[in-house]
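Hi P.,

Sorry for the delay on this. The queue was packed all week, but I finally got your sequence through. Input first:
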Amino acid sequence: MSEPTPPMSNVQKPIPLFYRDQQIGEHRLDFLVEDKIMVELKAVEALENVHFAIVRSYLKAAGLADGLIVNFSTMPLTVKRVRRERGFEKANLHL
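Then the structure:
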């Protein structure tokens, strides 16, 4: 009997970053679960607004609606949900 495969389908998945229809770089998602939920790993004393803004930027670039930030430096472990802004419509991206 084989072991079930974990839903972590992509680790360090590159996502192209565009400005005025030209690729200028790329983001790298820490984890992408089932091509739906981005997981960003942190090891900081406290999560700040900039961490949430960065995750929203990654979500926008990847055409995703939901993400999680996991902070390993706090006890207990901190996990926060991050959502895209209202009015989000999934882009036609093939991840």
